[in-house]
Amino acid sequence: MEYAVFNEQLFDFLRQSPTPYHAVEQMSHRLEAHGFHRLDEAEPWTLEAGCRYYVTRNDSSIIAFQTGSRAPTEAGVRMIGAHTDSPCLRVKPNPELTAKGLYQLGVEVYGGALLNPWFDRDLSIAGRVSYVDREGQVRDALVDFRRPVVTIPSLAIHLDKEANSNRSVNPQTDLPPVLMQSGGDERRPFRDLLRQQLCAQYPGCDVRQVLDYELSLYDTQPPSLVGLQDEFIASARLDNLLSCFIGLQSLLDTDPEQPALLVCNDHEEVGSMSAEGAQGPFLANVLDRWVGADARPQVIARSMMVSADNAHGVHPNYADRYDDNHGPLLNEGPVIKINNNQRYATNSRTAGLYRHISDSLGLPCQSFVVRSDMGCGSTIGPLTAGNLGVRTLDIGVPQFAMHSIREMCGARDGHTLYQVLRRYLALSEVTS
Fold first, then answer.
1. Model pTM?
2. For 39-82, how does the pLDDT look when each residue is reduced to its tens digit (9 = 90+)?
3. How far, in Å, are 21, 30, 226, 327, 330 from residue 316 at the CA level?
4. Which of 227, 420, 157 is nearest to 306 (CA)?
5. Most exposed residue of 213, 239, 326, 390, measured as fewest CB within 10 angstroms of its CB?
6. Which residues neighbour 377 within 8 Å (Cβ) at sequence distance 6 or greater?
7. Signal sequence span per UniProt (predicted)?
8. Are 264 and 132 in a shared domain?
9. How confident is the model at residue 431 (pLDDT cuts 50, 70, 90)?
10. Is 316 exposed, middle or buried (0-12, 13-18, 19+ CB in 10 A)?
11. Segment 180-235, tens digit of pLDDT
């Protein structure tokens, strides 16, 4: 896939994926268009060699795999992992608030979000809604208002003289967004508004009662190229939908002869401890049903996982926050992430294999090690390595403004990582 086409398709994916549910829906559509067959965890599986399959859990995590023509016990499985969730604001179960004639929503912070950038944005609402239809059946539907419906106004600097020098955000009192004017103290149930949106979004949808929901606020500003020469990408949710897209395209475009797998887990931003998170059994369950529980250790011994999650690019205004020899630059290639305390799962073998592929393609790569006097974040890499015993590489595209409502990365780095991962998925072996 050419560089410009890659970014065009990336932008479309980002626009259509305001929540993990929507991201998994979009990935499912693209997989089916390329011949992947949907599996149901609740049903028996009959898998055939040389075929492609995918399965979802909770509609927010997805695993896609191709069985290949070689037995996994001989060839191993080339795996790529990423996560579908991003830090954001989630709507509370009883969100209705009224003050000074305004209807507001109670929200909860999800993950380690940078909160200040959420103010004064044109925000919308999207997620999953559970409801009862006219026949009394409980059903789910994805909802997306698709236009600005809420905003979080800043307090004027005249009333907060220290806003530019000492501003802190109280998540309980400062973040409730304005939804509409309420007409006094009237508090129309938010679920009634959701019911209206469902009926408008799905003509003919027969909604008797909205039962519950998992809804997020998101910025309606679309992805864009930034810079005098279009050198950069600015968008919401680059961490980590960029890696999901790279992994997906790598799998779609690779030779189907090699056993290969993509897993995109939910809940990485809050620790991954869930049925569909990387600390849960989803990936192990799928591997057992594919290769068999008894054969899994043999398969894992011949396999490798690439955990793709964005890295910290060196910020020119804060260069002192980085190790001088390990400050990745935007558009200078993907970043091998290394931490000797196992916050990243990279070792010399997995890093060496990536460098070998990258060098053979004439493509750049970089390394990141956090300053020795600072703490280090983590990824699904160590969790997956610990759960499965699979050799793992942590790598990612360098970016600025990680966990902000709008993030920034180089316009070339995603395509570079895609080219290397496509070659990696086609390797006949990864063991030595």
1. 0.97
2. 999 999 999 999 999 999 999 999 999 999 999 999 999 999 99
3. 35, 38, 17, 10, 11
4. 420
5. 326
6. 343
7. none
8. no
9. confident
10. exposed
11. 998 765 678 999 999 999 999 999 888 999 999 999 999 999 999 999 999 999 99
How many Å apart are CA 299 and CA 183, to the nearest integer?
64
Within a domain: residue 352? yes
Separation CA 151–CA 217 (nearest Å): 9
- Is the bond preceding residue 58 a cis peptide, omega within 30 degrees? no
How wide is the angle at C-alpha 54 spanned by C-alphas 17 and 142, nearest 5°? 35
pLDDT in tens, 289-347: 999 999 999 999 999 999 999 999 999 999 989 888 888 999 999 999 999 989 999 99
107 part of a folded domain: yes
As a whole number, the mean pLDDT across the chain is 95
Which of 47, 56, 115 has its CA nearest to residue 259? Answer: 47
Whole-number Å distance between alpha carbons of 373 and 61:
35
Whichever domain contains 287, its CATH number is 3.40.630.10
- Check pLDDT > 70 for residue 145: yes
What is the radius of gyration, based on Cα positions, of the chain?
22
* One domain for residues 30 and 134: no
Q: What is the dihedral of CA 132, 137, 141, 145, to 10 degrees?
A: -20
Q: What is the CATH number of the domain that holds 117?
A: 2.30.250.10
Tally of domains in the chain: 2
Asked whether residue 189 falls in the same domain as residue 146, the answer is yes
Instruction: Establish if 231 belongs to a structural domain.
Output: no
Residue 9's Cβ-count burial label (10 Å; 0-12, 13-18, 19+) is: middle
